[in-house]
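Record format v2
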Amino acid sequence: MGKPKNAISPTREENYPEWYQQVVKAADMAENTPVRGCMVIKPWGYGIWENIRDALDVMFKETGHKNAYFPLFIPKSFLQREAEHVDGFAKECAVVTHSRLEADEAGILQPAGKLDEPLIVRPTSETIIGELFARWVQSYRDLPLLINQWANVVRWEMRPRLFLRTAEFLWQEGHTVHATAREAVEETELMLRTYADFSENWLAMPVLRGEKTESERFPGAESTLCIEAMMQDRKALQAGTSHFLGQNFSKACGIKFQGVEGKEEFGWTTSWGVSTRLIGGMIMTHADDDGLIVPPKVSPTHAVILPVTPKEDSREQVLDACHALARELRDKSFAGAPIRVDIDDRDLRGGEKYWQWVKKGIPLTIEIGPRDLEKGSVFVGRRDLGAQREPMSRDDLLANIPELLDQIQQTLFSRALAFRDEHTREIDNKEELYSYFTPENKSKPEIHGGFAWVHWDRDPKWEEALKNDLKVTVRCIPENGGDPGVCIFSGNPSPGRVVLAKSY
Amino acid sequence: MGKPKNAISPTREENYPEWYQQVVKAADMAENTPVRGCMVIKPWGYGIWENIRDALDVMFKETGHKNAYFPLFIPKSFLQREAEHVDGFAKECAVVTHSRLEADEAGILQPAGKLDEPLIVRPTSETIIGELFARWVQSYRDLPLLINQWANVVRWEMRPRLFLRTAEFLWQEGHTVHATAREAVEETELMLRTYADFSENWLAMPVLRGEKTESERFPGAESTLCIEAMMQDRKALQAGTSHFLGQNFSKACGIKFQGVEGKEEFGWTTSWGVSTRLIGGMIMTHADDDGLIVPPKVSPTHAVILPVTPKEDSREQVLDACHALARELRDKSFAGAPIRVDIDDRDLRGGEKYWQWVKKGIPLTIEIGPRDLEKGSVFVGRRDLGAQREPMSRDDLLANIPELLDQIQQTLFSRALAFRDEHTREIDNKEELYSYFTPENKSKPEIHGGFAWVHWDRDPKWEEALKNDLKVTVRCIPENGGDPGVCIFSGNPSPGRVVLAKSY
């Protein structure tokens, strides 16, 4: 069977941003809505989010966190309690000013019932959660307080893109209070490792762990740790952040506790979050010119069985065989859960149906026709190996499906890691750096650059220059930045390499 | 060991509404916040919600529904598309009018970036979901479209009460489109049965199933089905609703499809929802004057082990035994999931600790001290049997814990059903009805009344009179209203009995 032309047009090479939109559309994951910047997450996209949420939730609970739910609205005065924080979010927030609609003289409904104080739809919840933590924390015995919230948040985005940057998005935000700065720092590090573990082992997305420079810190944080992944256009995607907030928010919100020796002290707080943006990262790490590829561990369905029923008289028999196989497959387990199998018996041409599943990125397709019944075989397609399909005995499939899914998971990770390695280099002079990040033909900016590990003396003026000249930023000061060296901009000493890239 | 006085003050008898608040507080489930009408759901309350959500989610998926996520905001013009619908919600909605905050001349942050069209924070999502369904539905092949959303919604409540009536609440809203009216009606009935099944079998809360009268219908619905439960003050709580929307919203939103014969038709839609209000219903069905009682199936923890360590030299041994028992208990399962066990080794007086768990309503407490180790016994408290504790052999506990939890679940249901039966009567004349619903001493309105099954000729004027005279409403026209009879108000024919009660 010859491979048709690519299912996604344009290809990554031809127009990467447009390819991304088309992949999301072809997989039927999400759409834009008439509400500016707000997307609808359709069942296939939401199913992936449910798997992400459930896996992370287990990790959070295993590390002692409990879930709670806090108000959607934040009074304006609360947001203003931390000066840097409000500066960071005031420019992009949804403001509720009225509590009802009322017909005016012309009979047109207008906002009415003006609120005494405007409410902000939470862009993040440090200040409202801080207010409540201040009630809950009285003594060192109440610490650490380890809380997580799954919620929607709103940040008014000027240039929205499905999953990557939307006005409303779904996320989790962890918020903790500790008795000492050291414990709070350890918490931020623990959660960063949790995020990295999840990204690599569930999304098959390799990430660098490191710290943000001052200019990229969360508004109000003392330090921001992050994980950074490389997309297939070689840009970086910040996939999760973990903030050490020092005593900034505990002072702003009055989170005080009586210490072991009776003295009243301010708590040390952290916050950390990942969002539906992870799905954007997953797409741009794995999808190809035939559409989405979902890592098995987070795929809503692991395998779809496609009955091939050319003749009416064998149709029933084929369908029965499909259902029998599905039942047996569902008794197997992968990644701690039963294998998720669907049967797609819609009345559609076989090729069309098969390609719909390819575009959805399902890990395995299993076709069964009348002849397969005789031979005890099935026809298996592995999405990570492209659109080719191979015969396999039914028994082998049943015996090996967990391993098969695991192989797909591993292949996706290895391939992404190899891609990142291929497009990562240590650069030791400024000209090479500038040329690395400059497309050869400016009028047609092809995919270029990657991650550059360079020595930098930490002077913010070079960071500013990079942003202006190349649209390149310091993605992170990595945990493994290596030995001290010489700054490629100033010739001054550098304590270690940092990672530069263009980014989302 | 003598029973102390009630842990909750006031008792149900003394002051029912205040008792409710104190139960919620003593169980540490939720609190009011400085954001008017918005509560924070604390870990114990949220854990119950997670169990409710997960159990219902399985039921929705088993009946063919898929989850998706739609925008938080609804443009004002969308809400206005269905006239009754906007009338129903305009009086209590949060209106977003601006997209940022900006400092005025005095340096005070003010709403800025006025929106061209105000956005309403969803009070329910028929109109925005309808807009998207109109895109997705083209042909009869696309039907039925069966979607559910887990989300937060906002309705500006003037008299908020934790869980029962809050400005923001968590819920699920199902939205479906069908090719025929009959299929849509069947869907509303199926989901009503699903809600009743869940309420009775998971929350141990008996419910009546029936239909609302016209005056109590969802704004924009053709008919509204409901489940109604009896609280311990004998008032009714509407615990879930399922609406047949006819073609009202499909016409308002343009949900059209090409029928089998090629003709374009409007779809028939439904919507149905339950919310965190279920937790309020659960509390008022089971809690007693010692605090909350959580039905085992939805309890965040089934059993807590309380180490009794009077002497330092046996402390370690006792703790080891507690951990060993916890491990063995967690290997057992109840209601399809591993048994959830906590060990509470906080440094607190034993009595205080024990009573904290009683007030949280945990199904089982298990105390273990040095002497129990010698005897191979434990000291078990069943919350449904009050605050008494009995010795039990460790082996018996391990062998019987699933059955024990099941017994508690059954006892709670039977008790609630007996309570409802006790306070339900058929009433066949108007005087008796008025006296049934009138407290003996108006200045001190003790708990009174209940469910009255009466014949009514369906003339709305009697409904109106009941509301004005007694604050009593028709809770539902029950599925099992029995034979025709004579209206107790007019003497005219009645097609069957309806259920009257005061309500939340």
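Chain B touches chain A through 63 residues (CB under 8 Å).
Residues 103 and 109 of chain B are 4 Å apart (CA to CA).
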